[in-house]
């Protein structure tokens, strides 16, 4: 079927928006290069604005992803398994919303299933969906727990994140290798201190 007039208008509008966005982005990078005292027209920097935008597209691709799509397929045939499901040491990279500096760390995501489980890679994708945005670690931790609660409805949830914030290791107070740990526990993991301690030690363990 050929493209309708409306579809053609929509496509042209979208292309025009993308073109305007790219132009503005390229100029913004050139302005920042000027700000640090560089000459964006020298040979080594000619393609840098383009590469910068491409890198940003990757670092911030979470804005184009929806947690409900990631968690939409739930498997209920698990032979009655209703014990702990945990994925730990999932590496991630994010950026703080205050300095746009890297936050590099790893997360543990765990739950006690009720009506079913999700494919284990979905937990890693859920982490990426939220970490590939501007973040604060506390919010990132809570958002993952909220998405699991809303779309999977398990009996208990634990999300623990350990991360190094480059805005305080490479600038500011310069505290190299200091790590921030945040946790969000729901249901049984929050109510029972022994369960909470066990999850935390599994996260911290080697
Ligand atoms: Zn920061």
Could you explain the architecture of this structure?
With 206 residues, the protein is of the alpha+beta class. It folds into two domains: 55 residues, Orthogonal Bundle (GTP Cyclohydrolase I, Chain A, domain 1), CATH 1.10.286; 140 residues, 2-Layer Sandwich (GTP Cyclohydrolase I, domain 2). It contains eight helices and seven strands. It is flat and about 60 Å long. The mean pLDDT is 94. Zinc ion binds next to loops.
Write the CATH homologous superfamily of the largest domain. Answer: GTP cyclohydrolase I, C-terminal domain/NADPH-dependent 7-cyano-7-deazaguanine reductase, N-terminal domain
Overall mean confidence score, pLDDT: 94
Total discrete domains:
2
Largest sheet: 5 strands, mixed
Number of distinct beta strands? 7
Structural class: alpha+beta
CATH class of the largest domain: Alpha Beta
Lateral strand order in the biggest sheet: 5-2-3-6-7
Bound molecules: zinc ion
Low-confidence stretches: none
Spell the H/E element sequence.
HHHEEEEHEHEHEHH
Give helix % range: 40-55%
Number of helices: 8
Rounded to the nearest angstrom, the radius of gyration is 21 Å
CATH topology of the largest domain: GTP Cyclohydrolase I, domain 2
Quick one: overall form?
Answer: flat
The CATH architecture term of the largest domain is: 2-Layer Sandwich
């Amino acid at each position: 079927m050929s493209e309708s007039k409306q579809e053609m208008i929509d496509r042209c509008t979208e292309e025009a928006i993308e073109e305007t966005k790219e132009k503005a982005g390229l100029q913004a990078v050139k302005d920042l290069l000027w700000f640090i005292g560089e000459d964006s027209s020298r040979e080594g920097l000619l393609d840098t604005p383009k590469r910068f935008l491409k890198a940003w597209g990757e670092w911030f691709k979470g804005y184009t992803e929806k947690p409900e799509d990631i968690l939409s397929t739930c498997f209920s045939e698990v032979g009655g398994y209703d014990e702990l499901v945990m994925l730990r040491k999932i590496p991630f990279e994010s950026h703080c919303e205050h300095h746009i500096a890297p936050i590099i760390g790893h997360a543990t995501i765990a739950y006690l299933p009720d009506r079913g489980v999700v494919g284990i890679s979905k937990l890693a994708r859920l982490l990426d969906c939220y970490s590939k945005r501007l973040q604060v670690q506390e919010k990132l931790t809570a958002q993952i727990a909220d998405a699991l609660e809303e779309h999977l409805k398990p009996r208990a949830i634990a999300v623990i994140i350990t991360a190094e914030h480059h805005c305080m290791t490479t600038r500011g107070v310069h505290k190299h290798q200091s790590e921030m740990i945040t946790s969000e526990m729901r249901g049984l993991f929050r109510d029972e201190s022994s369960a909470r301690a066990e999850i935390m030690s599994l996260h911290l363990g080697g």
